[in-house]
Amino acid sequence: NDPTEIGTAGHRADQLAALERQIFDFLGYQWAPILANFLHIIIVILGLFGTIQYRPRYIVVYAIWTALWVTWNVFVICFYLEVGGLSKDSDLLTFNISVHHSWWSEHGPGCVRREVPTVSGKSLDGHSYISVMGCIIDYQYIEVMHSSFQILLALVGFVYACYIVSVFTEEEDSFDFIGGFDSFSVYHAPQKPSHVLLKPIYLST
């Protein structure tokens, strides 16, 4: 199989996964993941362009980004599993500008969402107490599965990026060594005899 076709298919799968995650992060107003997903989509498009247009430098940028992307998703996993003093109930992923949490916390598989209006009518913000029951899977595990899948795609993308860069580099080296010297000899060799043949004609006139 052509390595560029494999790399292109991998980039498209990575882009679709990032778009899917971006949609649910938008629904949950998770601003930090939204920003990270946006950057990831841009870099994936850059890597896709580099694969199609044979630009190894763009693919190298994508490979470097995959390492950062893995680091970010490891942090998200630790955040939802509350590792290292992190709390999934904090507003860290919303930059502390809203009280929203993961969209899956209220809309996960089997979840029943009920809004209980506040007893006091003096509430200015109009918020109601929301209770969620019957969830088959807790939302933090859904987020962990999302991040784990992103890590898997990033690792596969890194391996293919390194492979494609090595293939492009070998092709460029072989072209410079074989085509470069051959084209030089073929193109320049006829010039000297033609010059010698034309010189007596010039003198005779």
Automatic annotation (TrEMBL):
- To which protein family does this belong? Belongs to the NKAIN family.
Family annotation (Pfam families) = NKAIN
List the membrane topology term(s). Multi-pass membrane protein
In terms of InterPro entries, this protein maps to:
Na/K-Atpase_Interacting
Species lineage:
Eukaryota, Metazoa, Chordata, Craniata, Vertebrata
Q: Which residues cross the membrane?
A: 31-52, 59-83, 149-168
User: What's the protein name?
Assistant: Sodium/potassium-transporting ATPase subunit beta-1-interacting protein
Its main subcellular localisation, reduced to a broad class, is membrane
- Gene that this sequence comes from: LOC103190353
Location of the protein in the cell: Cell membrane
Q: Which domain of life is it from?
A: Eukaryota
The record's Gene Ontology cellular component field reads: plasma membrane
- Which keywords does UniProt give here? Cell membrane, Membrane, Transmembrane, Transmembrane helix
Q: Which GO terms describe its biological process?
A: regulation of sodium ion transport
